Amino acid sequence: MKTKLGLLYGGKSAEHKVSMRTAMAVIKALDLSKFDIFPIYITEQGQWIKGQQLLAPVESVDELAFSQTVENGAGVLSPDLFTAEIDGDKAQLDVIFPLLHGPNGEDGTVQGLLELLNLPYVGNGVLASSAGMDKVVMKNIFAQAGLAQVDYVWFIRKEWEESKEMAYKKVEKTLGYPCFVKPANLGSSVGISKCTNREELETAFQDAFQFDRKIIVEQGVTAREIEIAVLGNDEPACSVAGEIVPKASFYDYEAKYEDNSTGLIIPADISEAQYTEMKELAIRSFKSLDCSGLVRADFFLTQDGTWLINEVNTMPGFTPVSMFPLLWNETGVDYPHLIEKLVELAQERHTEKQRIKFTM
What we know:
The chain is an alpha+beta fold.
């Protein structure tokens, strides 16, 4: 019997377009002899629309962004979105694959909804998704777990508006230049700026606060950017490592998705001892956030050989040319089988959760 798989994509987020690309790639890779595919599209305005079962791969992103009249309840979130009708029989979908990036999708909100509906879903749970989305919370947890990282400070929009000069001075005194200003709750390098002086810092604060009420400022470091992919639930495994070699001053949104100006070296040129240490740190970060399914763990490797964890991404870019699938492909798990493995992990975790008692 085929698995009824719901693909959830789009989203009310600055990363809407990234999600659409991910959904397009996954649909093309799914084996239609193993899966019945049901698209669920979230518009940029936050409307939820269920499409017809996909009987063949779509050819364009426009086909995924199907429009539908939102009158008479259409576009409203309801449990019916997660049901399917096949040969006249209506049934709940077997697994949901949230192909969502950023707020309102990768941050625990959708995961909480799926938990309430008692539906198996791919990827991280509520806690890991939420903590992994908020860079400040994530770094605080990493510090508690004893993971080395760059120095950082953070600000709320309100306190910055009331005392901008104090905020800038705190950055300069604590971190100095260069530094990186980022929205605390966003990914895909959206809203990130590198600052080498006060003028750039002021502009960076203004830009970052457009995307979140909280921002984080991190100390710049001279280091190589090495990433590793983690897959699993209670017994996670790691891929080979890969290195990011940006040709621009840093790995920004354009470098990731638009101008192809970034080099990827897979596997990364590191020693066996360095790789062993990196795997241990990646799994420790995975477990410290209580992750499940998948993460991409991003590290800095300094000139003296020290590993500094930068962040983990609980729903990394997932097109065939994204780092996470490329790392697993080099490790021996190709893109279609990686998707199937993630679905299996979702079902495994859901089965494990059913062992929990909810009555006395």
